[in-house]
Amino acid sequence: MAIKKSSHPMLDYQKDSIRSKNFMEAANAVMPGGVTANIKYFDPHPLAMKEARGSKVIDMDDREYIDYVMGYGALVTGHGDERVKKAMTEYIENHGTWLFGTPHALEIEMGKRIQTHFPSMELLRYTNSGTEATLLALRMAAAYTGKHKVAKFEGHYHGGYDQMLVSVSPSMKEAGEEREPNSLPESKGIHPSHLRNTVVLPFNDLKACERILTEHRDEIGAVMIEPIQSGFIPPDLSFMKGLRQITKELNMVLIFDEVKTGYRTCLGGVQSIYGVTPDLTALGKAVGGGFPFGVVGGKRDILMQSAPSHGSDVFDASQSKNKTAQDVLFHSGTYNGHPMILAAGMAVLDILEKEMDVLLQRTNQLKQGIQEIFDRYQVNGKVIGMGSIFSVVLSPKGKIRNYRDLQKSDLATRKEIDFALLKRGIYLKPLNRYSVSTAHTEEDIRTTLTAYEEAIKEVYGGSRF
C-alpha cells in the first residue's frame, strides 16, 4: 500500500493564484464571502475565471486548465459550443425576440424531444432550474396524495430550499443510527417544522426504508431520490425496484431527481438503465446547455392538476365564484420555457444524440486510466460513477454504497491530490465529482492521466515509486 508523505500542494496553489486571491478580496466588498453561490467557494480561495472555450478555462492569473467541473455538469457540450451559439442567434434572427411571454412552438418541440428519451414524462412543465423542478414536483405530489410530509435520502441534494435542505452532509456525530438517520438542518434559518416534516432515509437499505415509510404511510406523500447519489454512487438494482414497489403500495409519489444524471448517464437517464419508472422526474443542468433550465414531468393525472383550465388561476380576477385558488395547483414563472434556452437545449440534444457514445467512451478511458494508476501504485482508490460523471474515493472498503461510506474515506488526501492536479492544469473544485463533455479530446484525457500520475507521486512520495 502506498504511504502518503508530507506534501504541501496547497502552498503552490496559493503562489499560483495571486490574482484570484486579489479578486476575491475585492469581491468581498460586493458579495458576502465574495461569492453569490456558496458552492463556488473553497479554501483558501476559489479560482476566478476570465475565459473559457471547449474543454479549457483560463483564470485571472492566465493559467489554462482542462475543466472537469463544467458548470457542475451543466456544460455537457463544453464551453461556448458554436452549434449551441448558432441555434440561439438564429432563433433571434428568425423570430425577432428572445421572449414572448406567451405559448410558442419550441415548448412543444422540446417537450416531445424529451419525451422520446424519458417516456415516463407523459406531460411536463418547464421551470428555470433543477431546484425549481424538484420544488414543483413536491407540490404536485402533495396535491395528488393529500399527504404533506416528504421523505428524502441521507446525503442527497435536491436544491437549496428549506424542505429539502435536510441531512445533505450531516456530521456523523449527529446523524443518528445508520438505519434510521436523524433529520438535521443544513443551514441557518430553517424552521424546525421542516425537520419534523422531512423524513430521512438510508440509501441502499431497502428493509430500513420499508420500515420507516410504512410507519409514516399516512403522512408521507412523496419520496424523492437522486437515483445515483451525488451523481456517482449507484444503487443496487434490487433496492431501486423494491423502492418502486413499496411507494406504489403505500400511495407515495416516487420522484427521481435526475438533474445531475439526466443526459449524463445516457440519453434516457438512470431510469432507463435500471428499468424503473418513477411517477415524476426532475431534469435540469445538461439539457439546458449551460443556461437556467429545468423541467418536471411524469404521470398525466399528476401533471393535470396544474392545468389552469381545471380550476382557478391566482392571477385571474374574474374567476368563478364557485371556484377558489385551492382548486388548481398553481405553477407559473415569467421565464418558464424561455425560447432562447429551449433553442439551446434543442441544439444540445442534437449533439448528444450523435456524440453520446463517444462521450461515454472518453469518460471510460479517463476512469480506467485513473484506476490503473491507483492499482499500479497500490493506492486504495476507487473510481466510481456511471455515464459521463464520476468521482474518486480513497478507501480500503470494498463497495461505496452510501453517504456514510463516503465519509469514512480519506477526504484529506483526496483534497491534496486535487490541489496537486490544479498545479498541473487540471481544474476540479477539490472533492468535487468529474463531469466530462463532448469537447474533451483524447489528448485532454492523456494529459489528465499524465498529470494524475505526477500528482499521485507528489502526494505519496515520488522516490518510493
Notes on the protein architecture:
The chain has 465 residues and is α/β, with parallel strands linked by helices. It has 2 domains: 9-80 and 356-464, Aspartate Aminotransferase, domain 1 (Alpha-Beta Complex); 100-337, Type I PLP-dependent aspartate aminotransferase-like (Major domain) (Aspartate Aminotransferase, domain 2, 3-Layer(aba) Sandwich). It has 14 helices and 16 strands. It has helices spanning 9-16, 18-27, 82-95, 105-117, 130-145, 192-197, 206-215, 237-249, 269-274, 300-303, 339-376, 403-407, 411-423, 442-460; strands at 49-53, 56-59, 64-67, 123-127, 149-153, 176-177, 180-181, 198-201, 220-225, 253-257, 280-284, 294-298, 381-386, 389-394, 426-427, 434-435. The strands form 4 sheets. It has a 7-stranded mixed beta sheet, sandwiched between helices. β10, α9 (269-274) and β11 (280-284) form a beta-alpha-beta unit. It is globular, with a radius of gyration of 23 Å. 44% of the residues are buried. The mean pLDDT is 94.
Quaternary: single chain
Query: Can you tell me the number of structural domains?
Result: 2
Cα radius of gyration in angstroms = 23 Å
The class by helix and strand makeup works out as: alpha/beta
Q: Assign the CATH superfamily of the largest domain.
A: Type I PLP-dependent aspartate aminotransferase-like (Major domain)
> What is the H/E string?
HHEEEHHEHEEEHEHEHEHEEHHEEHHEEH
Number of strands: 16
**Helix count from the secondary structure assignment:** 14
GO molecular function, one term: transaminase activity
Protein name: Aspartate aminotransferase family protein
InterPro entries: Aminotrans_3, PyrdxlP-dep_Trfase, PyrdxlP-dep_Trfase_major, PyrdxlP-dep_Trfase_small
Region (Disordered): 172-191
